[in-house]
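re: ur question from earlier - yeah i can do the single chain one, its not a big deal. heres the input i used so u can compare w yours
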Amino acid sequence: MPQHILTVPTRGPGLYEFTDEAAAFVAQAGRGEGLLTLFVRHTSCSLTIQENADPDVKRDLQAFFNRLVPSGDDPSMSWLHHTMEGPDDMPAHIKAALTQVSLSVPVSAGRLMLGTWQGIYLFEHRSRPHRREIVLHLSP
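and the output i got, formated as tokens:
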């Protein structure tokens, strides 16, 4: 069963598309049909399938999650106990818990069966740059 670890560098909070890299992995595997499973190996970022045509979608999603879960130094977050790794850490864990750490995408004729405007994204929730690892696994 083909498997690959993809590293996605981030520059801070936001959505980082890696659809092309996932599609290339599927194409190189040479399987006509199957299921691509994607799993991020971290607890302060997540994965999502989202629109990739209008950049306002990414901006609005980021703004929504920042309103939903503010930084740990915001007075509304004074109840947090896990604060030793900085004001962005526990909010990042909360955002990751509200979203997904794994996705499944059907594969047909050697291609991802995504919709016209769908892209696969790493959703970075931490403030500083990271190198995130995503396991890509293609099963029959």
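The mean pLDDT is 97. not sure if urs matches, ping me
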